C-alpha cells in the first residue's frame, strides 16, 4: 500500500465527471487500499479517486463508526429525503470549511471491488460524507454548495473528505 498525493484545488480533474469503472481487477483492489491509506494519513472521513488524480468513479468513506470503510464504485443516489445542515471540509481544500445543506437520508446503489452491486442506506453524518464523495465523482465541489464559510473557532473537530 502507498499514500498517494492529494490533488489540491484548482485542478481540472476535480471539476469534471469521472468515467465509470469497468474492470474490477487486482489493480482496483490495490487502488482502494492506497486510497484508504491516504485518507487515514490525511485524517479524512472520505476520499474520491479524482482527489488522487484519477478519472474513475471510485470513492471510500469511513466516518469511524460501525459501518467501517465503505467502498463505492460507480455509485448513484437512487433516493434521498429530509434535510440537514452542517459543517464540511475537503482534503482538496485544506483549511477551508463551510456550512452545507444536504438531504438527511440517502439510498445509494453501487458496486463493490469485485463488481457486485449493492444498496446502502445512510443518514445523518454518514449520508453527508457519502454525498460529498459522490459529488466529487460528478465533478461537483463542496464550495459550490456552501451557504456560509466557517471560521476556525466555529468548527469543533470537522474532518476533510
Ligand atoms: Zn472533498
TrEMBL record:
Pfam families reported for this sequence: Pep_deformylase (PF01327)
Keyword rRNA processing: no
Recorded GO MF terms: peptide deformylase activity
Cofactor, free-text remark: Binds 1 Fe(2+) ion.
UniProt xrefs under CDD domains: Pep_deformylase
Cited InterPro entries: Peptide_deformylase, Peptide_deformylase_sf
Cofactor: Fe(2+)
Catalysed reaction equations from the record: N-terminal N-formyl-L-methionyl-[peptide] + H2O = N-terminal L-methionyl-[peptide] + formate
Binding site for Fe cation: 90, 132, 136
Residues at the catalytic site: 133
UniProt keyword list: Hydrolase, Iron, Metal-binding, Protein biosynthesis
Keyword Transport belongs to the record: no
EC number(s) given by UniProt: 3.5.1.88
Function per UniProt: Removes the formyl group from the N-terminal Met of newly synthesized proteins. Requires at least a dipeptide for an efficient rate of reaction. N-terminal L-methionine is a prerequisite for activity but the enzyme has broad specificity at other positions.
NCBIfam families the record matches: pept_deformyl, PRK00150.1-3
Entry-linked PANTHER family: PEPTIDE DEFORMYLASE (PTHR10458:SF22)
Membership in a protein family: Belongs to the polypeptide deformylase family.
Name the record gives this protein: Peptide deformylase
Organism this protein belongs to: Robertmurraya mangrovi
Species classification: Bacteria, Bacillati, Bacillota, Bacilli, Bacillales
Gene name of this polypeptide: def
